[in-house]
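Hi V.,

You were right to ask for the full record rather than a summary. Here it is.
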Amino acid sequence: MRPMAYLDLISFTASAIAAAFLVRGCKRTSFAPAVPILLAVLLALMACYHAALFLEWSGLTAGLDWVEDIAGLFIPFTWAFVLYAFVKNTVEDELRTYQQRLRSLASELSLTEERERRRIAAGLHDYACQNLVLSKMKLQGLPVTETDEVEGICDTIDKTIESVRGLIFDLSSPTLYKFGLEAALEELLEDKVKAQYGIDCTFRDDGAAKPLAEDVRIVLFQSVRELLINTIKHAQARAVTVDIGRLNGSIQIKVTDDGIGFDVEEALTGTSHRRGFGLFHIRERLDFLGGRLDMESQPGRGSRFTLLAPLETGTTAARETPDGSEDSAG
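Predicted structure:
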């Protein structure tokens, strides 16, 4: 057997292996469905070319020049396509890596922002509110004759205290950390949406245990709050319902309104609109945590948003106590 026969045998084997690996790689990238098939055909033709050469050089058969001629025509196209597929696959792998890093950075920045909000809110509660309450008590204890004026000042202090408490809630919900996500969402509906905007609100909880990691709990609360703000600003809704429950190993939250609805595709593609950006941001953050956001809406038929996020798992997962501390499950 001539040395060239061994070379063609090696080329034939390499072509077959390349076909398998590159077709598999194409499935992980954004190629059209027909592209892996085309690539496999081209590599098969190249394998036939080397197989014909091998048979001819080894003396096993002859008269295969027509196979060599036909298959040989596709060799330049095959290698060009192989190179293109390899580069595309490599670039898309790097792009996915950068996207993952960007999502991770955005999530960490959001959590850092939430921690800072919580610190500022705690400072306002511990100092501003306490000092205002103490000032009111001292003012009421003074032996003054201008009772009406003192009562007016006390009313002003009361309004200031309420404003500061509202600011504290807007910065960071203390209930979220003390009593959990369910209590925080119910408070959000009753004290904000219903009390301030007159929208009829319904909150339903299945009562099942829903252990959540801190970052998941924060993202879910912020996401529901963003959806409710969108409802208040854009939906012209008269009623809003929030359902929260456990679904297998995930928490599911449904936010439904009877507003004017919207076109989902238009909202997601119209990045210049505040609503579309908010929905895109919610979807990206949930996707990073392993969850998702599903949207159902049509103009004139209201909207329904379904949020899914993974529950905390493990026999030693920390469970939250009513005072906001964490206790290890034993």
